[in-house]
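Changelog-adjacent note: as of this version, every example in the card shows the full chain rather than a window. The one below runs 436 residues end to end.
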Amino acid sequence: MAVRAEDRDRAAMLADRARQLSRSGRHTEASAPARAAVRILGELAEHNPAEHAAALVDALRALAAVLAGGKQYADAVKVADNATLRARRLAALDVHLHRPLLAATLRDLGARLGDAGEAIRALSVLHECVEAYRTLAARSPEVYRAGLADALDEFAGRLAESGLTDDALAVFEEAARLLTLADADVLAQVTTRQANLLARVGRVDEALERANSAVRLRRSQAEDAPGAAEDALAAALQSYGLLLSGTKRHDDAVEALEEAVSLRARRVRVDPAIARRPEVAVTYAVYGLVLISADRPADAVPPLAAALGVGTALNLPQVVEMATDALIRAHAAEPAAVRSRWRAATGEDAPQWITGTGRTRRVEAGPPAPATTAPRPDRMPAPDRTPPADRPPRADRTPPPDEENPRPPGRGRLTGQPMRRPIPSPTKRPRTDVDV
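Full-length structure tokens:
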């Protein structure tokens, strides 16, 4: 019995480690501990299913999230299906004890199915998940209110992906009504996605109001508990800044992104491993794009160079594509200033794909490698908060507010971010991490 207890504790530690690595964007490293946890708990459950079956379901959920984070969507669906089958068996034996586990597992399966493009089945599973949480919330509203809102949030996102915009907005509204300030994390998450979808359908004023509300919620959290809450605040500021940029409020957009970049840089200085998270590169790339929209192409070079370096190192092709295209646009606007800022930021001359002479070959060969001395996110200079007085904002460079950003891995959200090119949002959280 002592050995069994030690094995279970070890499996729990491995599963937690896998989740932490996955949230940091280190999905490949997370795979080994996640699989080890499943293997250990599988052996324990085979000998004593009553004691270890629920823990095995949780370990399978963690493995499915890791696989989804690594874009192994088909494998993630298989693992999530396995977890759901086991959770159904447990609920059949004791529905009152195991219904919460089944509801959570259904929510994960719905997300995994959506990631894999199985939209119809994803909606069916998420509808069942919502109904399970409704039953739980009817009996214990304080305990399961946030869980129900979170399930509605996921359901709404998948409805929006399927083109059911009105239904999605209604579900988002229901989720928001359920929550109070005591549920600030889920409320900010729901409000941000609701804002992005509202912007996409042209209800811009409502979208800005909700996005600003999400920023206020995240700021309050960051003041009470700095650290991971600052990541959430940076994400909310990024989303808000994109909406502002789409409405040509360039100065306000730049201010929001400057704060987001400052938060990212501070977090990286405290913990250099955070620089490996995809959301850091995304924030720097978005900051560069917003600066270009504000007619400050030279100022956009340092953050875009940082995004390019991190995006290449982490194999984030969408971030690399966005940064390279933005740098080409910036150079076309102010060639001499952009070349000067590139040299100041990287210590090297601007490569041919920026200046235009090597552009054809770049398209054929794929995105270019960044300069080896591209600035690190924790060494970026402080943002220049003084926009040039002699240059009015260039409205023709502002992307339209209703273009859709593809869903980030594992979330499937419609962000409504005003980007010309698709970009990955911060790493999908297995319902406990930060998401934009």
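Structural remarks: The CA atoms of residues 278 and 316 lie 8 Å apart.
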